[in-house]
Input
Amino acid sequence: MESNTETVQNENPILGAVMVCHPPIIVPNVGQGEERRIQDITDAYEQAAAEIGAMNPDTVVIISPHAPSYFDYIQLTSPKISGGDLSQFGDHEDHYIIDNDVELVQEMSRLAEEQNFPMGTLGQQGGNLDHGTVVPLYFLNPQIGHHTRIVRMSIGGLSQLDHYKAGKILAQAAKNLNRKVAVVASGDLS
Output
């Protein structure tokens, strides 16, 4: 009889993905009522977050264009814990602390180095989570358990093919660690 661990290793470790926008005004403590004008975006966000929650991932990878990024490198956030808020947008109440999936980051970095691919933990690591990460967390937190870890990934100035390769490295790292992963691509789409 096959164990659950063996079963997951044979399946695709990437459970699914959603693409979302990240206008800070969508968060009520920023919007102060203005968020009701974009209720359709809020409804879609809640649906996307519910879909991610229903996947029951071990890790959610949030790809943010506002994370520290470099023209020739895709950066992964490496501290064990990260935090962020929307205080720059007037929200002094909502604050998020996340457990980063350090093991997945290390495995992605190892595979990238092995393949001589420009992705890893080099560059700026201090500072808070950016709004491209925090806005999705506002909707995700009620849907994912406290056991779910996060990986924040930047985008770089690399080609589309290179970003595809980064996704392949993510999938291989998740498979190697037997992680079930969901991906949230946060973009300037509002």
